[in-house]
Amino acid sequence: MKKKAIIISVGVLALLAAILIPTILIPRLAADKIAVISLSGIITTEGSSLFSDSTITPELVKDFLMRAEEDKAVKAIVFRIESPGGEIAPCQEILWGIERVKETKPIPIVVSMGGTAASGGYYISTQADKIVALPTTMTGSIGVISAVINVEGLLEKLGIQIEIFKGGKYKDMYRGFREMTPEEEEIMQGMTDEYYEQFIDVVAEGRGLSKEEVRNLATGQPYIGTEAKELDLVDELGDLDTAIDLAVELAGIEAPIVEYYKQPKLTLRSLLGLADAIKSRISGLSAQDIILLEILNHNYPQPLFLYQS
User: Fold this and answer.
1) Which residue numbers are catalytic?
2) pTM for the whole thing?
3) Can you say how many angstroms the Cα of residue 252 is from the centroid of all Cα atoms in its chain?
4) What tens digit of pLDDT does each residue of 30-81 get?
5) Fewer CB within 10 A of the end CB, N or C, for the chain?
């Protein structure tokens, strides 16, 4: 009887060992993930500052994409976009970054649009496998805007005279210290038209539309989500959960972990902006003085993919 009990005990231990040892020794596979990348704000080359809300930069998007690319458990990416667009070059860099990830890690990419994903916000969405918009999302606004601030009258009123020394006929055409000549306006319009054609090309390629179809829509007009779906600018109507479910379906996975990548709320640049503002106030500059200095320091216009509400 004792011998029988020993045999049963040994058998039970062997069974437990057979179950537990592989669990301990063999590493468990990581659960599949959906990476949700939140992008909110104006698209620009620089980060947020004291006088601006959060921004979307190529560097920020690159960091997020690298993180998703290096994580083998990530089987799909969902971009949550809330942006009216912004500077053209950063929009292009972000788009190229998304295209590169699609080549190096061929996983589904889905865009979920918030309240606004227009102009540059729409531009960076075009290469996604699917675009989901709210019925009330403001999107589209396919076009380019260029503006040159002419501060000549303001400077006269303030008694400020600026002497310009230049090498090159058109070197000061953007400075805004004088009216542009008809020839300079033609140059500016030509540049704007070239960017406009590039925008049309990107939308046509990303959405599988002809250039003529896109050109008919590219009036700069914003479209609400329901209109955008009818015009094939977006694929589905829904919220972020709809986009996540769609990404899961496209990836062919079940019950994944949803990991949210969020923008940092405080950056070194915003802290430096605060320090500069405090210094300016201590030196006796008013809020109006600070704004004037910002205009003079940054008055070098560039065409924008920007929806201006």
Assistant:
1) 119, 171
2) 0.79
3) 26
4) 689 999 999 999 998 876 444 445 789 999 999 999 999 999 999 999 999 9
5) N
